[in-house]
Give the backbone structure.
Amino acid sequence: ESGEYQIRETHAPGGYVQLTEPAVEFKVDRKTGKILRKTDEKDKEGNVIYVEDDGTVPIQVVNKKPVVFKKVDANDEKKFLPGAVFEVLYKEKLGENESPRDIKGYKPYNKADGKPLTVTADENGEIELKITKPGYYALKETKAPKDYIKPFGYVKEFVLSDQGLYTKEEG
């Protein structure tokens, strides 16, 4: 039947984060009956661009697990550090002449309520981020655990994409 359609995840499998946006959006043309898949692109007038699908292309749905990191002592990786507080920073795309090894211009990642996302390491030193938006992320420690000093700069940088999670390593 002609019209516009969305496929939404109503329940995520155990251990995965439920998608907040539609997994797929498409429309069926009233005149031709053809399936047109919605893209992220817009034309010169600002209208969303749809591309024709022949109906045989599988729909790719990406399920993402929460991103988990551990805060440990630099000299003893078995010593977990609870209580560290991190601000989550975000950048959607790289700027011109910017490489993944040298990203500038991160901004606070805001939750649905518009407030910046911060996370605190639990008793096992773990922080869990329930984020699904693709892009470039950084964690900045804003409060050190008891008896430790706050490090300068970003403590972890990573990229979240539909293909997976990639962490930036020093060196």
